[in-house]
Write a structure and sequence with these properties.
Length: 104
């Protein structure tokens, strides 16, 4: 607390301590005592078999994020797009979003 008052850097946190009697699940990396590990690992193995994309820790993939559609509009909100197919697509997207802008 004296370090915080002086504004100095904090010391590093202590390393995590694990109970050596605990058993780590190979599927989710959590740790359990012997009896809980026997039940959990069987359960976790069944779940991993049912959902192959949710395997071991670190194998998870993020779904692709939304891509932002750039619309080219003048000050009044009218579309200045030169490609009619893109303009029509943007018009459909905008109408689905209930926007006040429409393509002309």
């Amino acid at each position: 607390t004296q370090v915080i008052k002086d504004g100095g850097p904090l010391p590093p946190p202590p390393p995590p301590t694990y109970d050596p009697d605990y058993i780590q699940c190979p599927y989710c990396q959590r740790r359990f005592n012997q009896s809980a590990a026997d039940r959990h690992i069987k359960f976790c193995q069944e779940q991993a078999a049912r959902m192959p994309n949710k395997g071991k820790l670190g194998d998870t993939k993020k779904p692709p994020g939304r891509t932002q559609v750039n619309t080219y509009r003048d000050r009044t909100g009218h579309c200045m797009c030169t490609q009619q197919t893109i303009c029509g697509l943007l018009e459909n997207i905008i109408s689905l979003m209930e926007s006040k802008y429409t393509c002309i």
